[in-house]
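User: Sequence recovery, please. Input:
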């Protein structure tokens, strides 16, 4: 396979669709081809790579180890070919495109209202497909080409990952105002005496808040752990619970009977970033979306992973 002579490069387009859909019929719809034509192409691909590539498991086609090795390289190659055939400019007012993004519901809360309000005015044919996963899975999806952008907290960046800082976030606490005797503050003793709500996809994984508290030689009682940022503020209303979370997710003003106050111990802030793979670095549409998100949330300088 060192020479391209005699090889139908359209087969790689079929393989790219099959790896994305994991289903012959859906790949056929995606390619605007018949199911027999895609099945025939898969047979040729198996001969070409001397590997089954995709094997049936239940109602899906599961990739072999060889196919998993090929997937990121194929995605990068396909992206470069598309960039060769795409005009250098990107007009958001006329382009039709769907971008896939991954973020937590915290990221969705701080970004999507601003982003959708802008898209519905400036880029009405641009669609978004948003998913949620752990930061490790999101980074893997970016590397594998399954998503265009991931937004979140990424302490480390894998090979080929590019990033830009959107903003630096701090922590604040929330409690029911009726449970305060006067000034909306709380000392460490009272903080530790209260039960707490933890927001985390996995309650068994260390988080920034409890690591900072442990550094003071203390620990709090978590009486409720939930995976969703958006539901957490409402859980403290009418209770003695305390919620310590990223400041941007908390209600502004009087919070409808809730009070926001500073944590009684130091919690390091965190960087909220968008990350993408270098294969998408030069794509005009991708660059436009990254720039727009940076403008809406606060620009940061790109950095290599």
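Assistant: Recovered sequence (305 residues):
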């Amino acid at each position: 396979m060192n020479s391209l002579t005699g090889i139908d490069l359209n087969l790689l387009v079929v393989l790219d669709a099959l790896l994305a859909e994991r289903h012959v019929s859906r790949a056929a719809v995606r390619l605007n081809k018949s199911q027999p034509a895609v099945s025939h192409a898969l047979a040729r691909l198996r001969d070409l790579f001397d590997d089954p590539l995709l094997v049936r498991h239940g109602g899906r086609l599961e990739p072999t180890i060889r196919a998993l090795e090929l997937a990121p390289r194929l995605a990068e190659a396909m992206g470069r070919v598309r960039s060769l055939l795409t005009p250098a400019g990107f007009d958001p007012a006329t382009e039709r495109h769907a971008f896939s993004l991954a973020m937590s519901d915290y990221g969705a809360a701080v970004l999507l209202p601003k982003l959708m309000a802008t898209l519905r005015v400036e880029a009405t044919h641009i669609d978004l497909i948003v998913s949620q996963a752990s930061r490790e899975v999101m980074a893997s999806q970016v590397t594998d080409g399954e998503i265009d952008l991931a937004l979140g907290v990424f302490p480390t960046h894998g090979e080929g990952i590019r990033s830009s800082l959107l903003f630096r976030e701090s922590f604040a606490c929330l409690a029911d105002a009726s449970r305060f005797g006067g000034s909306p503050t709380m000392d460490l003793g009272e903080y530790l005496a209260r039960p707490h709500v933890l927001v985390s996809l996995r309650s068994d994984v260390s988080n920034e808040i409890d690591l900072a508290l442990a550094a003071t030689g203390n620990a709090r009682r978590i009486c409720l752990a939930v995976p969703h940022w958006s539901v957490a503020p409402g859980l403290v209303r009418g209770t003695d619970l305390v919620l310590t979370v990223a400041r941007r997710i908390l209600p502004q003003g009087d919070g409808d009977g809730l009070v926001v106050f500073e944590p009684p111990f130091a919690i390091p802030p965190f960087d909220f970033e968008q990350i993408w793979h270098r294969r998408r670095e030069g794509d005009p549409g991708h660059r436009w979306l990254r720039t727009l998100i940076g403008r809406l949330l606060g620009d940061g300088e790109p950095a290599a992973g």
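The longest strand covers residues 161-169.
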